[in-house]
Amino acid sequence: MALGQVVNTPSRFAATLERRGIHYGWVVAGVSFLTLITAAGFRSTAGVLIVPLQDEFGWSRATISAAVSINLVLYGLGGPFAAGLYDRIGVRRVIAVALVVIAVSSTLTTQMHAPWQLDLLWGVANGLATGAIGVTLAAVIANRWFTKRRGLVTGMLTASNATGQLVFLPVLAWVVTAHGWRTAALVVSTVALCLVLPLVLLFLRDRPSDVGLLSYGATEPDPPASQKNPFSAAIHGLVDSTGSRTFWLLTASFFVCGATTNGLIGTHLIPAAMDHGLSEVTAASLLATIGVFDLVGTLCSGWLTDRYDPRWLLFWYYGLRGLSLLGLPFVIGSTNLGLIAFIVFYGLDWVATVPPTVALTANAFGRERVGVVFGWIFGAHQLGAAVAAWGAGAARTWLGDYQTAFVTAGLLSLVASGLVIRITLGERPDEPARRLEPADATAG
User: How far is Cα 173 from Cα 184, in angstroms, rounded to an integer?
Assistant: First the structure.
């Protein structure tokens, strides 16, 4: 009886909230937000471990960055397959297993003594597990549980990346400084198992129908979940999408997005700032401050995506990012207005690109396919991140600084700004392109 009560708790809770005019989708969004916050914190841990691992084991930054690159690639490539697993076995089960894998792999890193173990534990295990709790999850939750306010919810969920940095990075940097990097790895394990996992098991549900509801703002039920093999669904989603120019333009621009965010700044801003004399805690606080502005920027981006042409939003986001990165070599390591300006402008569009990219993906491929297709587009994002993570580490090893990496990233962002404006609204891979009506363009 007690077990049945636990299982039925969300349905009773959903009914109680519904009587008070609150949709249970907001609870699911809240739990997903917390889950994504912690996953972002787990991924960002690499930034505070680079220098301690270099100091203890004598590994070069290129060697350590190789493990980070593996992590980023698998994090991205895991997205479309995770979307298939969401349909086949359910979001809650997939997330629960991923949290356990994160906890185990983080604990085992405290016993490693060779680079291949870092590659296996941090690169492979952590990369695949966090890939199941990535931006693809944000897209799936927003499109399954919300017919209205999808852009806003997508923005809120993707802003969790910034919040995760804000919450975890300064804390982990302090833990590393005060107690060592092994303690920081154990903190990650404890949070995953003791805080996030119980909430996921208790409150997260796969679809509105699981608690007897329609999605927020819907007037008719969504189609039933696909029962295809997850691998087959992911591959078919990729094959079907390749006939769309929109897919390739979004993929190319998101490759640049990953290279200029997670790969470069997310991985190397802390060691780059330390090269210029800043302490690790101060450098981590810089990245966390970027996260504050990113939280604001991404929420605003979600709101704007519900109302304006997402192509022009992306044009401005990539353009401003490029200009800020071109200016970074001149201000890093200082505390002047130039560095503050970089933190503000770069921070405002760290992941502000996600809501309009998800909106364009949903429009071109449909809401039911958005998880798999956006998963592949996000895979390109993480491939770009992996290339930049390794490339910037190699540049630092060979050239002695990060200047070339920063300038290259800035120029690539300007190229991406030109690519996104060429997207045709309403294009489908299996039908002629059509011009969207205003109501379609703002559906999010």
Answer: 8
